[in-house]
Amino acid sequence: MNEQLRFVIITGMSGAGKTQALRHFEDLGYFCMDNLPPALIPKFAELCSQSAGKVNKVAVVMDIRGGEWFDNFSEALLYLKCNNYRYEILFLEADEQTLIRRYKEVRRQHPLASDGNILQGIAAERDKLRQLRERADWIIDTTSLTPHQLRAELQVRFGSDNARENLVIRVVSFGFKHGLPLDADLVFDARFLPNPHYIPDLQPHPGTTPEVSAYVLQWPAAKEFLKRLLDLIEWLIPLYIQEGKTHLVVAIGCTGGRHRSVVIAEQLGASLLEQHRVLIEHRDVAIGGR
To answer: Which of 1, 23, 123, 248 is least buried, going by the fewest C-beta atoms within 10 A?
Structure first.
């Protein structure tokens, strides 16, 4: 049972990008914890394994910020090994000049440089982490890596074998009269389609009802629009994945966000759902309007 839980321990030099890496792990679907003292690993691992499968990928940052608690690192690893937890150690590092520059940019004090001498703090930390580095399964030098390149490195090593599984597509219907969705990556306009608002029997009903859906989809333009829209998005998805994107928001708009955009969003979402992780949201369906 414990072997089903993937346990990634992120550690390494202060300023090497551990916090940034943890954010990327969150995007990859890991349950994440920052600055977890090694002494709490047994209890944390136990809680995760008792989640009935809800938590099967975990990433935790453990580093010298834990002070004297960090010295229990070996005992924590021994516990994981003896209890058949599949753990991996990711060690992040960078050269001295890069670490110093990053600390100066954020104006933070190095954990081992209470006197303000960053270089001495880096040297002390590197010495303290030497044995742990030797035990690491993965070592990534972030000296010359951009955030995008670091994300790509982590995707290759810790992402799903099927990269599409890491992309969540949110299809949002909305009304232009209520404003664009602020987080939209792609926006499409369905206002060229005949409007059910002007059909007395349809006007009170939202686009999620069969009668409104049938009305909108009966027009050849609607069918052609959906076909071309699906082809475009399917073409774009691998390119977005290649760039490390984990969330894609596709917004479909009509005047009020109640009829046409809802129908198109429902149909598009259902088609994408066959091969992707999809969420469908109707932002303005309850507000009303044309």
So the answer is: 1
- Which pTM value belongs to this model? 0.59
What pLDDT is recorded for position 56?
A: 84
SS3 state of residue 44:
helix
Q: How far, in Å, CA of 94 to CA of 16, rounded?
A: 6
Question: Which candidate, 254, 257, 252, places its Cα nearest to that of 285?
Answer: 257
Beta pairing partners, 45: none
For residue 285, which amino acid is it? V
Closest to 86 (Cα-Cα) out of 18, 199, 4, 176? 4
pLDDT at residue 175 tops 60: yes
Q: How far is residue 252's CA from residue 273's CA, in Å, rounded to a whole number?
A: 16
Domain boundaries, the chain: 2-159, 165-282
CATH fold for domain 2-159: Rossmann fold (3.40.50)
pLDDT above 60: residue 255: yes
The angle at the Cα of 230, spanning 227 to 235, to the nearest 5 degrees, equals: 125
- How confident is the model at residue 199, as a pLDDT? 94
